[in-house]
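Q: What does the assembled structure look like for these inputs?
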Amino acid sequence: MDGNASAPGFPLPSEIADAPGAEGWRSMYPYFTRFQPEDDKRFWFYNSMHFPEPMPAFDTITAEVPYSAIGANTARVFVFPTTLGIEHRIVNGRVYITANPVTDPDEIGRRAAVFGERAGYYYENWDTLYQGWKMRIKGLIDEITSITVPELPEFDDLAVVTESRGVAQNHYVRENFHRCIDLFSVMWHHHTEFLMLGYGAYVVFFQFCKQAFPEISDQAVARMVAGIDVIMYRPDDELRQLARLAVEAGVADLFTEGCSPSAVLAALAERGEGGQRWLSAFERARDPWFNVSTGDGFYHHHRSWADDLTVPFAALPRYVAQVRDGMLADRPTKALRAERDRIASSYRDLLSSDEERAAFDQMLGLCRVVFPYVEDHKFYCEHWFTSQFFARIREFGALLARSGVLAEAEDVFQLHHTEVDQALSDVMLAWAAGSQPLGAAHFRPIVAERKRILAALRDWSPPPALGPVPEALNDPAVHMLWGVTQQTIEAWLRPSSDVVRGVGASSGVVEGPARVLTDVNQIGEIRDGEILVCPVTAPSWAPVFGKIKAAVSDIGGSMSHAAIVAREYGMPAVVGTGDATKRISTGQLVRVDGDRGIVQVIG
Amino acid sequence: MTPRFTCETAEVGAADAARAGGKAAALGELARAGLPVPRGYVIAAAAFGLHMDAADPGGAGRGALGSLPADDLAGIARAAADLRARVVAEALPPDVAAEIAAACARLGAGPLAVRSSATMEDSAEASFAGLQDTYLAVRGTDAVLDRVRACWASLYNDESVAYRRRRGIGEDGLAMGVVVQRMLSPRSAGVMFTRSPVTGDRSVVAIEGTWGLGSALVGGEVTPDSFTVSKVTGEITGRRVSVKVRVHSFMPNGPGVSAQPMPFALRRIPCLADDEARALALIGRQVEEHYGAPQDIEWALLGDSPGHPALHADLADRIVLLQSRPETVWAARDQAPIASPQARASDHVLARFRRAL
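A:
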């Protein structure tokens, strides 16, 4: 300790001790994710928005690949003048990140010339490029969906001979697995192709608004830009349609609180024309709209609605009851659009000159051009593609389980993707040799140990940040995406016992009992009138917003999912609190002030 | 007989500042726009003129005052005191007194507020705000007649005269109207600016308020609660509740206006609920729209005693405006446009990312 012991600060990376009982965690992650001695000099913050839980070994691919892609796009492809990429490190299973800025004015100038040409090309051709993007992403989704895991039968297919393919099944074990990994990488490159430019347009408009109206709230800016027909609402809209159809087709009685999806589906098959009609509508809705993860596409165990129907079936009984009572309203898109336009034109009128109004029109116009991508890409990438990606990996896991290397398919996610590669080689060799794979003895103890370590890591409370406190954190992108500002850092440094501070993301003040959910699969526990306190929300959480009075999240800025949905439902929300899920317990009475961004425990 | 020296508040408007004084003109303008002001009447500046003809025949006293050098404070104090004594001692012209008595009778029984309304007051160029007197809880016509003369005399307060001498404003054209209103017993009162006084932001209404009468706030005896309300979304984007240690309140059945320590239990309670702050902001916007420029407004919120919101009336019916004047501080600042249109919309973004974040 130095003489300044009284000054609050964050621990240095090198000061972090192994979580008790989890001493072997390093073996789960690649060497390039470890903190280095020189990392003590930089400021890192815990990316609990994307990685709210300890990382299973396979799932580190959802950090490695995205950071490889986003950095490439900002630093090397579009050559952003002032920023390179993001570095990530893993300690005790948690992902910490830091952004690399460019500060040398000459270097910024050199990069700016390249950036202007490249970014300008994308902005000027955005609509055309975005249409092409959607086609390419759908192509990737089709491909990841169609990838198969070879059966490895006793004798290979006759066609290998009659078509003189000359390549046996075991080759495709590796090729198809590699193709999954490669497609995941391609998807992430496309994901981040438009990301920074999209947010850049928003940041510029945001800063203009803050300068013209210094006291404007973040959410007021967001509301001027927000799209109305956003794909994110589609899965929930589909559920509402299915609820309507259930009543119309006379099968509503099957949808009761706590019903089992498989029992309901079986019963529907016995219910004649009405049941059939519902089932075929269900199949149509399911593909693609149930490809929505109960998380944000960063963990294999955040299953999609499509492969875990509990979540949609937990929401259906409530919607069915609302249809029966004539209470189920569609999203009032017309009113929402009118309100968005009213807010924008009111602020426009308040500007002090026609010159400013013309600039406002340009910036807002550009935001609205880029926002379909900003709002919709998550469905295509993190949800639809990624649900299919994890499903394919699970199928490779099933092959490893069939071959005896793993005890069960799900265990594949305890291995890093390079280790899965090795295990598959083992299986390929054994099939070719007519022997048994050797992996059981090697990998099964590793899997068991890692499951134990992960359980221990879950009990570790990661500090919100590590390293020296930056003099100023003024990066608007960091603020917008992660809700991390100078104020956030100060609140992290000086926690007060009964006040949780975050970003006021949707206005209003309410009180109610808290329901703390750390895992999305618990959303069935929510009762009417409770206040949801969670790490982060994703589109699949939408049905709970019909039940809750307010939303509080650990992570998120004014453009995060919880913020957008809460504004739409007109309920208070405080996001980006850092640690609300740790400091608030289920059943405590809390007051959520969405204007000031404060959550207070009052009983 | 048509009154010559008095009229209803709504009979004057913004153009009548010379005839009725700035405060009366502003109140009349608000009343004409359908905005809530206290019931009352206006005594025209002509009544002051007639009274001064008797109190200072030929304007000799005023002339002497006007010729004193600005730095002769002792001389100013002597001459001003002499003139004030004459204004107060002189009986009101009979016609004026009769009209005031009739107007008071129309207002009905009950305590009144008598407020100065100087013809030069409240102009954006030279604000005399606060230099003239207001009398609260005035009971009975005789007392009103006294207070009217006291208001007139306050035009010759030492500070007012010294201010005019410093600014080189002559004594010749000066006059004063008077506003007589029914006394209010507000639950909370204060001021609001239809743009942020701190940042100049025109998209918000900044409200300051305290328990009871606004005089505790204007006089600097309490730190007011402050609220910032978005004009566009109605969000309350700022809220600071201060410890309000004193309260000025009016007891209709008691001694009149009194200043007392605020009960401990109520000191830290906000003097406005959120919906009240929003309702005030909405009225503030209406005033601003009516004038076409940001305003500085005095308001009162009627209700029961401090700390107990009134439940008996619609919120909108409980708000009363006491004054509105143009905001002058930010209006005087020339602000360069913060952005100009570019050849392409994306040029805004390209330019932004060329600077360090």
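The interface with chain A takes residues 196, 199-204, 228, 230-233, 235-239, 274, 335, 337-342, 344-346, 348-350, 352-357 of chain B (CB under 8 Å).
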